[in-house]
Amino acid sequence: MMPKHQFTPITVNRYSTRAERQAALVQIYRQVLERQPYAYERKILAQAEADFLSDKIGVRRFLKILAHSEVYLNSFYHNSSNLKFLELCFKHFMGRAPIDQEEIRYYCDILMHKGVDKCITAILDSEEYRHFFGCFTVPYPRESAYYPSATAYLETQTLNHELIKQRGSVVPTIYWHLLGLNCNAGACDHPEVVETLNPPPSPTADHLEAELLNLLQSLDSAEKAREAAQKLSPQQKAALRSLIR
To answer: How does pLDDT run across 78-112, given as a tens digit for each residue?
Structure first.
């Protein structure tokens, strides 16, 4: 499946001006935090920002400091399930959704047995990250020329375009649409459960009677009448009995 458009990457190097690095910093926060930091968060990140703007550290090093900080962890880790957190890490640092269950299991094992810092480091040190972003390119929503499946395309597009916490902090995108869940309001509901809790209004008696009369008028044999009777709902049968009376 072909992508719709390509994002222009933002890269900084030793020749980049301070203004260019400042623009890259804005894009880093937009990609990773999905917003700009609050005033108190900037105090936490002040030293890392200063080092980045003065060319003491590159993009990948700054990302590690940001991702390991309480600013990032408070936003996406402490109040999320492990699976949702992993999905968000892929969104923020890889620019895509997890490929499959095997990839999820691999990083979930690191997260559970080695901790969140090791898990984030494993993503940022991965061969894929180095290939696409290196040390100086800001991660961005990636669009491949081809996707391994329509599902992979759908998951990446959905994840990269959702707003922060739009679909809650528990069920990953890779699961909610496969399970038929509606998570757009921040909490996941199953349409069939919602319909059970809030059943549609019953048709009126007049409507049922008119429907049954039309049905009876169309029958020209006892055999068709029996077939039709077997298909009647309890409401229709009740209405038919009232007509007979």
So the answer is: 989 999 999 999 999 999 988 888 999 999 999 99
Report how far residue 79's alpha carbon sits from residue 88's, in angstroms, rounded to the nearest whole number.
12
Q: What are the backbone angles phi and psi of residue 164, rounded to the nearest 5°?
A: -55, 130
Task: Please give the torsion angle defined by the CA atoms of residues 143, 145, 147 and 152, in that order, rounded to the nearest 10 degrees.
Answer: 20
Chain CA centroid to CA 236, Å: 43
Check whether domain 18-146 has CATH 1.10.3130.20, yes or no: yes
Global pTM?
0.68
State the Cα–Cα distance between residues 124 and 133, nearest whole angstrom: 10
User: Measuring CA to CA, how many Å separate 87 from each of 5, 81, 111, 193?
Assistant: 23, 10, 12, 26
- What confidence score (pLDDT) does residue 213 get? 57
Distances (CA, A) of 135 to 14, 60, 75, 107, 241: 12, 5, 24, 22, 78
Site of tokens 């039709």: 228
Give the number of other CB atoms < 10 A from CB of residue 137: 18
Selection from 111, 82, 73 nearest residue 175 by Cα: 82
List the Cα angle 116/121/126 in 5-degree steps: 130
Helix (H, G, I), strand (E, B) or coil at 12: coil
Domain boundaries, the chain: 18-146, 205-244
**Residue 100 has what pLDDT?**
84
Determine the Cα angle at 115 with ends 123 and 139, to 5°. 25
The alpha carbon of 4 is separated from its chain's Cα centroid by a whole number of angstroms, namely: 19
Q: How far apart are CA 125 and CA 195, in angstroms?
A: 46
* Neighbouring C-beta atoms of residue 27, cutoff 10 Å: 16
CB 243 within 8 A of CB 209: yes
